[in-house]
Design goal:
Helix content is 22%, strand content 20%. Helix 4 packs antiparallel against helix 5 and helix 7 (350-365) packs antiparallel against helix 8. The chain is α+β, with helices and mostly antiparallel strands and 1409 residues long. The chain has 30 helices and 58 strands. Strands 30, 33, 34, 35, 37, 38, 39 and 40 form an 8-stranded mixed sheet that branches. Strands 10, 11, 12, 20, 21, 22 and 23 form a 7-stranded antiparallel sheet that branches. Strands 13, 14, 15, 16, 17, 18 and 19 form a 7-stranded mixed sheet that branches.
């Protein structure tokens, strides 16, 4: 109806225009294009196309059979590689004008290959059909989040709230906040310091008593009572403790001693046990307490079994805590500069070199991150570690990474026969020190550098020895005599029957830097301080290196004033998490050092308020030390979750605001301050305020960051939670309990969960058990309107946030009562920025669950105001692969208007099954079910959310993190030229020291993308954004099998194939390269310095432990009754349901049916589930395989033939037994061998079997004994007794592939899954259970056009992985099968008309008959 003209147009079913370009003629088969010009001069083009001769009426999307729902395609011309018509793709016309058809168009291409220009679309007012369907898809997603998730209701609720805005002077508030954080940390550390000082007094008092007793006792008498050894604790004496992260005993302390500890050494273990125990009772968050003595005894509380215990007769590394960086740094706190000189020249035998290497590693163990080190390997030439270029120029900080690289270099040193060039080595050692140490003023030098000279002392003559010593003296003089030389003599081998006194004398003089003129050394007043003499030590096979080389630092002068020593955070070597060690030296009355007392403190405890700091949605805090190294930052893993040693990086690598370098300089001055940096359009759209304050008495500086100029606080809200539950349903159960798959739940109401950042002290929340009284206290407090109930440790604002969100429970329950999508929705939830979490059904969660670290939360925050769709992931609760739709909720505005710059109050999410989301796509675009057509949805990073390969039973690799660059290689190559649509970006990950490469797709792009280059004439695609979301929908028309595009990806890991460059238009999967971080300066390489820091990592969500009695006999919350769903439409997408299409033998089922995931995961009967809970006994009807399709008569004949063969075999076996054994012995050299006979007379393989007469290897079970041809024909072979075969490539999961790595790798083998890497497969063997003849297709039992080759994950042996030609010489004369490989193999096969030729090895027993 045209209202203005009064014309009504009625159309009969409209035929479509089908354009076929012949060599010279343009023919219009059938067509009707109606152009209606309205009064407003807009052009509406109504075009519908069909091919009356081939296109049948389309079945509805809800067809009972998924195969029937896919219309048949035209016959394919394999010679051309494309179909004879392009009707499928023309269902999505986007003609801009009638003259779009022109005779000059490329004849070999389908008609829709031109680009759609966005500006042209806007000018003409034409909207393409795909964009219309994308809008329809957006509307469906909007309905899900607004109606099912109740996002609109929640936003309206926040808009109705009243807020109080604080003063615009944000700097003063930020200064107050950071000041409070600093004071809290100082007070907590002061409490621990008081414990440390008290322990110090106790130990010093005990030593006084010990010394008095020793002075009055017989020499050698043991004065300390025997204690419990940490090396001899029994497992029954220990119990696991969550805070310590290991098995401990809190009853007493234990000790360990070095091999050189004297029998009467001071050992206070028994006396300090009760003191340490009382300290732990008063300070529950305190971790390890310990004392290490100068005598080599180490005491630790609580008792713990140490890993590297060594006693006489046992193997391992001797324990000597004096060779520990904590001890060395405490007794000599000044930074040390060390060069380790290893002599590898003439005279160094293998034993000597081994000792030298071990000595060097022991010296490295004593260094901390504040020390600097280098290693020289000196022979005829001087070599340095080449792991980084900086090692050749200066000393590097002794970080964990540096030590690893230097240890690798040390272990690769080999001796040589040429003389050692000592002079060159010394010159290089002093050069490294000179390039590293800060200058000292004249006459004010303190020795802080050392050369550890490990050598045999072999020189050519005395003149060379004198030259070497003079070189050392002169070079040291240039450094103001600040270098000490410690020499270690390697004298294992006796040289010419003499003890080598000349060499010892040389090493002694070199250590003392004595050239015979020591008495004439210039006095101190003449410009330089006196050289400090070193010491020579002889090393041999019985030397205890830990107590000799490991204590090299003791020759440095002690400090004039002893202070508390704080370590940088490090990974607890015994338990878990990051710890900071706080240590002090202990002395007797004459200031003689007796040892070091220390405490280990959880970083998560002392810095918990910083880790969970939150003053609005765009604020956070971080901690640096006095040298600018980052201790805590949101981009790093939270300390309590840390499992790997941290990689310390400078704070400027994490903060990208323009002008931050100057701010950092102000921070390191040691004074509090605050600076606001103006917004930069390239980096941040908000002003950024930095406020900092040092923590008094520590090396730490606290800084808060805020991007909001004003802070709004919610007014008090009335709350009523009478019908709600706390998530600890195992403690306070609901009236009606059930299991939501594997999670304890209730459908009575939503459950409230309080995340760690909701608590004032999150670490205490982690470590203290949640009892019934604690849970009741939480609920009573948040439900109290009188303010009379004591706060159980929650932040004051939590009560208001609980009240503001509590109404969502009623809204969800109302929706569930009337929803038609209950069978597809797993759960609904909301999480506020303050840590309040609501979930329906009410579900038990882990107390460590942090929603702000989950992907759905982070993606919603990155795209405020948009519906964000997560890539599929495996539900921890047991529901299979799911997709999350999430959206932000903004702080309330009375007018209801919001922008992406508004403060975020919460994030809401809803989980649906992966199959339902794909069903949503194909119901919106039915053309997706046609042959040669596939549709997909991807997110703004290119990860696929919906794709046919994710739901088809023939593609059962994990669907997580599948990227478009893997599944759609040719499209990806073309998309990279669409610069306004996609960009390749990089960021630095300091969690694992890598540069991450990823894609970013423009969510604000409006228009339609199609082929930019026409190189792929048989691949046509169109992509457009889904309005109001972070998703994009694409449609692909592929009419050929040829592969010309290439997208390089690693086959076994995430390593980029070319880390030296990244071109915008070069296709590659998301990957990573090593981060180029200068170990000497801590600075990034030039290229990496341009990259921002990657956002914080995603924390995995785990199920809490539940007692079996709590969940016993509980029903499922939702019973989708899969067995009663008779059609694909009713089954596909329903929770826990799978449409079974492939049998356990890998063939298509004649009658698909609906079953549970445990019965038919991924549509494959008996397939293994990701939870390993599959049911192998299914209702699948018996369907004879292609090898067993024989009649009764044939079966009888086969039985008779088999019997006759056995009779003949037995006869031959007994008559010619001796001759057969001789023949086998001549052939194989042993009895009972199984030989592989290649029927093509090529590459004969011999496979060894077990001996007949070996009682430990009886025949059977797949092993072939002497003449056991019956077992060879019946039993499947053992894969460990088979030879590799060429001609067939198989891919299996890489054993060390990270769990969350990009599974979309290896697009060099298209249509396969990258987490499988190439291995040689086991050969095929005779097996009559699967008769696979040469002329049968590899997809036996199914139409090739309907089914791609299935890759069964069932335990059954598959016989459908290979195409064989009819030639008997190729396929062999017998049936073939492939042994089971775990994980299941995946085979690269050409599609459809292509075939693969391969040789088949048939294994049999060689008999004389």
């Amino acid at each position: 109806m045209c209202p203005k003209l009064g014309i009504q147009l009625v159309f009969t079913p409209v035929t479509m225009a089908m354009l076929t370009l012949d060599r010279t003629i343009l023919t219009l088969k059938l067509g009707l294009v109606l152009i209606v010009i309205a009064a407003n001069v807009q052009v509406h083009i109504v075009t519908a196309v069909t091919d009356a001769t081939t296109l049948q009426p389309e079945d509805p999307p809800g067809s009972p059979d998924v195969e029937r729902a896919r219309p048949k395609s035209g016959k394919k011309d394999s010679t051309k590689g494309k179909s004879d018509f392009t009707v499928n793709f023309n269902n999505l016309p986007d003609f801009k004008s009638i003259p779009e058809i022109n005779p000059g168009y490329n004849q070999k291409q389908p008609s829709l290959t031109y680009n759609v220009n966005k500006e042209a679309e806007l000018r003409t007012g034409v909207t393409t059909q795909l964009m219309v369907e994308a809008k329809t898809l957006s509307e469906k997603m909007q309905r899900i989040v607004n109606e099912e998730l109740q996002v609109k209701f929640m936003q309206d609720t926040y808009d109705s709230l009243t807020y109080l805005e604080t003063s615009s002077n944000g700097d003063s508030q930020a200064v107050q906040a950071v000041g409070q954080l600093s004071r809290n940390i100082k007070n907590k550390l002061a409490n621990f310091l008081s414990v440390l000082n008290a322990n110090k007094k106790v130990v010093e008092g005990l030593y006084k008593d010990y010394w008095d007793v020793r002075q009055n006792s017989y020499k050698g008498q043991r004065s300390s009572a025997s204690a419990t050894s940490c090396c001899m604790l029994l497992a029954s004496q220990l119990e696991y403790d969550a805070m310590f992260g290991t098995n401990i005993s809190k009853n007493r302390a234990c000790d360990s001693s070095s091999l050189v500890a004297l029998n009467g050494a001071f050992n206070p273990t028994n006396n300090v046990s009760q003191v340490f125990k009382r300290n732990l009772l008063r300070n529950p968050t305190l971790k390890w307490q310990y004392f290490s003595s100068e005598g080599g005894v180490h005491t630790v509380y609580p008792s713990v079994s140490l890993r590297n215990c060594t006693r006489q007769g046992q193997q391992g590394t001797p324990i000597d805590m004096r060779n520990n960086p904590l001890y060395a740094t405490t007794v000599r706190p000044r930074s040390k500069h060390l060069v380790i000189f290893i002599d590898r020249g003439y005279g160094i035998g293998e034993n000597s070199l081994k000792i030298a290497k071990e000595a060097a590693e022991v010296a490295l163990r004593s260094l901390s991150e504040r020390d600097k080190v280098s290693v020289l390997s000196v022979g005829s030439t001087t070599r340095l570690c080449e792991a980084d270029s900086c090692y050749t120029d200066q000393l590097a900080p002794a970080s964990h990474v540096t030590k690893q690289q230097l240890v690798g270099f040390i272990r690769g040193i080999h001796s040589e026969d040429d003389p050692t060039n000592h002079t060159e080595g010394l010159h290089k050692a002093f050069e490294l020190i000179r390039n590293t140490v800060p200058p000292f003023e004249a006459n004010n030098s303190v020795a802080d550098a050392m050369i550890l000279y490990i050598s045999s002392g072999q020189t050519l003559d005395l003149n060379e020895s004198s030259t070497i010593i003079n070189t050392a003296i002169s070079q040291n003089r240039r450094l103001n005599n600040r270098v000490i030389i410690m020499t270690y003599a390697l004298l294992v081998e006796v040289i010419e029957g003499k003890p080598g006194m000349t060499e010892l004398a040389f090493l002694r003089d070199l250590a003392e830097q004595d050239n015979g003129t020591t008495g004439q050394q210039p006095p101190y007043s003449q410009g330089r301080p006196v050289r400090q003499k070193g010491v020579m030590t002889v090393l041999n096979q019985i030397s205890d290196l830990s107590s000799t080389v490991g204590r090299f630092y003791t020759i440095f002068l002690p400090p004039s004033e002893w202070k508390v020593t704080y370590s940088l955070p490090y990974q607890d070597p015994v338990g878990k998490g990051l710890v900071i060690s706080v240590t002090k030296p202990c002395f007797r009355r004459d200031n003689h050092l007796i040892g070091v007392i220390g405490l280990d403190i959880n970083v998560a405890d002392i810095l918990q308020e910083v880790c969970y700091y939150e003053e609005g949605s765009r604020s956070y805090a971080f901690v640096i030390d006095s040298q600018g190294y980052t201790v805590v930052h949101p981009a790093l893993t939270k300390p309590i979750k840390m499992t790997e040693p941290p990689l310390f990086a400078k704070i400027e690598h994490f903060e990208s605001a323009v002008g931050f370098t100057a701010v950092k300089g102000e921070m390191l001055r040691g004074e509090p301050g605050s600076v606001t940096l103006k917004a930069s359009s390239e980096i941040s759209a908000h002003d950024v305020t930095y406020s900092w304050q040092p923590v008094e008495g520590t090396p730490f500086i606290i800084c808060t960051v805020s991007q909001m100029s004003q802070t709004r606080h919610m007014k008090h809200q009335t709350i009523s939670l009478m019908e709600s539950y706390f998530h600890r349903l195992d403690i306070l159960p609901a009236q009606s309990m059930c299991m939501n798959f594997k999670q304890l739940a209730t459908t009575d109401a939503s459950a409230l969960m309080l995340a760690p950042n909701a608590f004032i002290l999150p670490f205490e929340h982690f470590t203290e058990p949640e009892t019934k009284l604690v849970v009741q206290a939480y609920m009573a407090y948040v439900n109290d309107d009188t303010n009379l109930i004591q706060n159980p440790g929650l932040k004051p604002s939590i009560k208001k946030h609980v009240a503001a969100t509590s109404s969502i429970d009623q809204a969800w329950r109302r929706q569930v009562r009337d929803s038609a999508l209950n069978d597809y929705i797993l759960r609904r939830y909301i999480s506020t920025t303050s840590g309040v979490v609501w979930m329906y059904p009410g579900t038990l969660l882990s107390k460590s669950f942090d929603p702000s670290r989950r992907p759905w939360y982070k993606e919603a925050q990155e795209n405020p105001g948009l519906i964000t769709v997560s890539s599929p992931y495996l539900d921890v609760g047991g529901a299979g692969y799911i997709v999350t739709l999430s959206r932000t909720i903004f702080e309330g505005n009375s007018d209801g208007n919001h922008s992406s710059r508004d403060p975020i109050a919460a994030v809401m999410g809803i989980d649906v099954s992966l199959q339902y989301f794909y069903k949503l796509l194909v119901n919106t675009l039915p053309v997706c079910l046609e042959d040669h057509i596939r549709c997909f949805i991807m997110d703004n990073k290119g990860y696929l959310v919906a794709h046919p390969h994710m739901v088809e039973p023939i593609h059962k690799a994990p669907v997580e993190q599948q990227h478009i660059t893997h599944k759609e290689v040719r499209i990806s190559n073309d998309l990279l030229y669409q610069g306004e649509f996609v960009q390749k970006l990089q960021c630095n990950s300091y969690l694992n020291g890598t540069v991450q490469r990823y894609y970013s797709f423009n969510t604000s792009f409006r228009g339609l993308l199609s082929n930019k280059h026409n190189s792929e004439h048989c691949i046509l695609y169109k992509i457009t954004g889904v309005p109001g979301t972070n998703a994009f929908v694409g449609i692909v028309n592929e009419t050929c099998d040829t592969i010309t595009a290439f997208c390089p990806c690693s086959m076994s890991d995430r390593i980029c194939l070319n880390c030296r460059r990244m071109e915008q238009t070069e296709c590659e999967c998301p990957c990573e390269c090593d981060l180029s971080l200068d170990p000497c300066t801590g600075e990034l390489g030039k290229e990496e310095d341009k990259n921002p820091a990657c956002p914080g990592n995603e924390e995995e969500h785990t199920l809490p432990e539940m007692a079996a009695s709590v969940i016993q006999d509980l029903p499922q919350c939702l019973d989708t009754m899969c067995g009663q769903r008779a059609t694909w439409d009713t089954c596909f997408g329903a929770l826990n349901c799978e449409w079974c299409m492939v049998g356990s033998d890998g063939r298509s089922l004649d009658e698909p049916y609906c079953a549970t995931q445990r019965e038919c995961f991924g549509g494959i009967v008996g397939a293994e589930t990701p939870y390993h809970d599959q049911l192998v006994d299914t209702k699948e009807p018996f369907e004879p395989g292609p090898g067993s399709q024989i009649g009764s008569v044939a079966g009888a004949l086969l039985g008779i033939v088999t019997f006759l063969v056995l009779v003949v075999y037995v006869y031959c076996h007994h008559v010619n037994k001796e001759a057969r054994r001789q023949a086998e012995a001549a052939q194989n050299g042993q009895h009972g061998n199984v030989r592989g006979v290649n029927v093509s007379n090529e590459n004969v393989a011999v496979i060894e079997g077990p001996h007949d007469d070996d009682p430990n290897n009886p025949p059977g079970g797949g092993r072939y004994g002497q003449g056991n041809i019956a077992l060879a024909a019946i039993e499947p072979p053992n894969p460990y007794h088979q030879a590799p075969r060429r001609g067939l490539r198989m891919w299996r999961r890489h054993p060390h592939a990270p769990s969350e790595s990009d599974h979309g790798y290896s697009t060099m083998t298209p249509h396969e899954d990258s987490e499988y890497h190439y291995v040689e497969p086991e050969p095929m063997v005779v097996n009559p259970q699967h008769h696979h003849t040469g002329d049968q297709p590899h997809h036996a039992g199914g139409d090739p056009s309907r089914h791609r080759p299935p890759r069964s994950e069932s335990p059954s042996v598959s016989a459908s992985l290979l195409d064989c030609e009819s030639d008997a010489a190729t396929c062999g004369s017998g049936p073939i099968t492939i042994p089971k490989i775990d994980p299941p193999p995946q085979t690269v096969l050409p599609r459809k008309s292509h075939r693969m030729r391969t040789r088949v090895d048939v294994h049999s027993v060689d008999t004389v008959c």
